[in-house]
């Protein structure tokens, strides 16, 4: 009897590889939503309200990305791991080091750096996925588009802040 959770047209070996790639992406998407919320709570300074309000929709967007990735994992017969331990065990990216209340400039610079790594990792994932599962690749491409959009917002805010300094 065929695995009822295996997507038609994808064999078990391919499914296992896809799930592994997606699990790594899920871990960073989960972490990113936590980091964004951390920044949302702790930004301070003259641009506080603008940055504070700019971050909330991105938290929701990244949480939606994680949900979409987790559901794709389940579609492929895998089990999505969203625990703190899975974030740590899947980490292949640099940790976000900024803690506590900091000015908006410092948080935005740290988030831009984090997003650079995040976007590169999502791009790498869709490049690896494309030859074996165009659906998963397209999901990652959509995520990159959203992440680049927010990265543009953060960079634009930094430029505006520097112009007023």
What does this structure look like?
With 165 residues, the protein is mainly α. 75% of the residues lie in helices and 2% in strands. The chain has five helices and two strands, in the order αβααβαα. The protein has helices spanning 12-42, 48-75, 84-90, 104-129, 134-164; strands at 43-44, 102-103. It has a two-stranded parallel sheet with strand order 1-2. α2 (48-75) runs antiparallel to α5. The longest helix is centred in the N-terminal third of the chain and has 31 residues, at 12-42. The protein is elongated.
Shape assignment: elongated
Let me know the largest β-sheet: 2 strands, parallel
Radius of gyration: 17 Å
Please state the structural category: mainly alpha
- Major sheet: order of its strands? 1-2
Report the total helices: 5
Low-confidence stretches: none
How far the N terminus sits from the C terminus, by CA atoms, comes to 67 Å
Strand tally is 2
- What amount of the residues lies in strands? under 5%
User: If you average the pLDDT, what whole number results?
Assistant: 92
Q: Which H/E pattern describes the elements? A: HEHHEHH
Helix content: over 70%
């Amino acid at each position: 009897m065929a695995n009822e959770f295996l997507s038609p047209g994808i064999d078990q070996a391919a499914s296992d590889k896809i799930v592994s790639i997606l699990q790594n992406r899920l871990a960073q998407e989960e972490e990113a939503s936590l980091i964004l919320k951390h920044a949302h709570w702790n930004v301070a300074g003259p641009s506080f309200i603008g940055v504070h309000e700019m971050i909330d929709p991105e938290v929701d967007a990244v949480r939606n990305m994680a949900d979409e990735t987790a559901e794709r994992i389940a579609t492929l017969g895998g089990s999505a791991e969203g625990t703190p331990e899975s974030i740590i065990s899947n980490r292949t990216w640099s940790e976000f080091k900024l803690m506590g209340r900091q000015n908006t400039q410092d948080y935005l610079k740290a988030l831009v750096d984090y997003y650079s790594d995040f976007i590169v990792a999502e791009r790498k994932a869709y490049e690896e996925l494309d030859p074996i599962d165009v659906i998963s690749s397209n999901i990652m491409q959509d995520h990159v588009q959203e992440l680049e959009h927010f990265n543009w917002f953060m960079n634009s805010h930094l430029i505006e802040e520097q112009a007023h300094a």
